Amino acid sequence: MLEIIFVRHGETETNKKKLFSGWTNSKLTKKGIQQAEMVCEKLKNEKLNMIICSDLDRCLKTAQIINKHHGVNIIEEPGLREINFGKWENLSYGEICEKYPEKSKKWEKDFVNFIFPDGESLYQMYDRVNGAYKNIVKSCKNGKILIVSHSGVIRAILSQEICKSIDGYWKFNIYNCGIARLQYVDGFPVLIAVNQ
C-alpha cells in the first residue's frame, strides 16, 4: 500500500504579513521553525521511504527539519511550487485592489482561469502540480512518502484525488505544518486526515 503524507511548510514572514507569496522565497519565522520541529517529533516514528518537496526555501527548510530522525533523501520538485502570482507577489489583498482595480475584479469573477500578471492561473498551477504528483505516485507503488509543499499545492492534489476536479479546491483549508494523509487502497485514494 502507498501512503502519502503531506505537510505544508512552516509559517513564513510573508504569511505573517498576509502577503501574496507564491514563487517568492520567504524565510520561516521563529514560529515556523517551531511548527516544523513539532511535525518532526510527531512523525519521528514513521518509516519514510523518501521526502519530496517544493524547491522553494520554505519547503526545503521545513523538510530538512522534519528529516532529522529519518535521514532519507530529500528530492526537490519544482512542479510542486505554489501558484506564481507574478506582479502580485509580496502584495497584500488591499494593495492588489488599489494597484490593479480592474484586474482584481476580473480575478474575483473567475479565480480559476484568471492569469496573474506575469504569473499563471489557478488552473495552470492545478494542472502543473497534478502532473508532477501523478509522476510521483506512478514511480512509488508502495511505502510511505512525505511531500512538503504549499497550501495551494496540497489543495490542488486533494481536490483532484478526492473530488476529481478543481471544483473541490476551496473545500480544503491547509494550515502551516498541518499534516494530511492519503492512502491508496487498491489504487483508490482514501483521505485519512487533514490538518493533524
UniProtKB/TrEMBL annotation:
Protein residues bound to substrate: R8, H9, G10, E11, T12, E13, T14, N15, R58
Nuclease is among the record's keywords: no
Record key words, sorted: Hydrolase
KW Transferase (keyword) present: no
Main enzyme class: hydrolase
Catalytic site: H9, E82
Family annotation (CDD domains): HP_PGM_like
Annotated GO CC locations: cytosol
Enzyme Commission number, as recorded: 3.1.3.73
GO molecular function: alpha-ribazole phosphatase activity; fructose-2,6-bisphosphate 2-phosphatase activity
GO biological process terms held by the UniProt record: cobalamin biosynthetic process; negative regulation of glycolytic process; regulation of pentose-phosphate shunt
InterPro entries documented for this protein: His_Pase_superF_clade-1, His_PPase_superfam, Phosphoglycerate_Mutase, Ribazole_CobC
Superkingdom per UniProt: Bacteria
Classification via NCBIfam families: ribazole_cobC
Name used for this protein in its record: Alpha-ribazole phosphatase
